[in-house]
Model the fold of this input.
Amino acid sequence: MSVKDHHGLEMTGASPAAAELYQKALTAYHCYAGDAMTPLEAAIADSPRFVMAHVLKAWMTLVGSNSETAMLGVQAFGVAKDLVNVNARELGHLAAIGSLLAGEIRSAARILEDVTIAHPRDSLALHVGQTMDFLLGDSRMLRDRIARALPAWSREMTDWHAVQGMMSFGLEETGFYDRAEACGREAISIQPRNNWAQHGVAHVLLMQGRHAEGVRWMRHDNDAWQAEATLGVHNWWHTALFHLGLGETDEVLKLFDGPIYGEPTTFAFDMADAAAMLWRLKLMGVDMGDRWAPVADSFTKEPRGQNAFVDTHAMMAFVGAGREDEAKALLDLQKSVLQGPGDNAYFTGEVGLPAMQAIHAFGQGAYGKSVELLRGVRNKSARFGGSHAQRDVLDLTLIAAAGRAGEASLERALLAERDQAQPFATPKAPALAA
Done:
């Protein structure tokens, strides 16, 4: 008799005990909190032919990690795809992982879409599918992928908090702020450790300019997310953005020196967060001492040319640290990226390369060139992934470049549109050093 998960989905190769260990790991993964790997490895030890355990390990280690950790995902995928009697849902996961490893993110997203249309209670497929949408900058699918599954879910079900956390982020990225906040807060009321739900509400507060509320939300209203948070760097980054919006740069630097990058990491999105925060401070004329150096060093330790969004943040680090040779090498590398396989060639051509060129030009004092490049890319920047909050650094760079290029009318226009987009912000926009 086949073992099923908490939602009635068959799990090839699992014993009942392994299935429970898998659920424990999946909950930690959904929450981005706690130790997911220990129960997952125990599940695999108990049931070596447990397909979804190997699949979960692959997903956990392939996205947003570093090259060393990603190899664990490659190995897990290799084990899983050699197993037999795999069901259609599990084959969908394997096909999506194969597409991701080939650099075909759009293909992975579509395969996972089909998995969740057929199996809307597959919370792992919903989770990693939304991650693919994030990598693609596909705001509509960030929302609709989850919305399609909601009729199959109810509040009393295991993982409801996870689905609500995902729904929160999807609604926020499509501008449904009230509903996004409600979903995120409901998720937290069920599972206070859910970092993704905490993050969804933080996005709402940031996009509306509710900075003081954001500080309270991240530091005081619910601090349960903080312990053993695998999304900790990113959520502390959000906390720092709230302090930055209030002009509290000393608090930003404390967070940078502590939970954001006090212990340097080579995980891709952690490096990107660190670079983006320092770049914002640079635009404001804040003295950052030697903080750029470890961030730039970390980027040199990992392969470049694999993700345009990450490479753009590497450029910020190289420019900030004065690593001109590294900056030029990164630009030169993009020539081969544009001719390469996978979706990153498209991301690079549409957004990544002009964004990198604009940041490099800004660092060289060629502010007019930076303005020209950023004006051409800002309205399509979603095409290289990330969230509105993350891509906002390009708008901030454009505002700063316009001011320094003497384009006062453009600067005023950009600040005016920003004020309308963040109606509750006080002050209305961060001061950018002239």
Notes: The chain has two domains: 1-152, 264-434. The chain has a mean pLDDT of 96. The two ends are 70 Å apart (CA to CA).
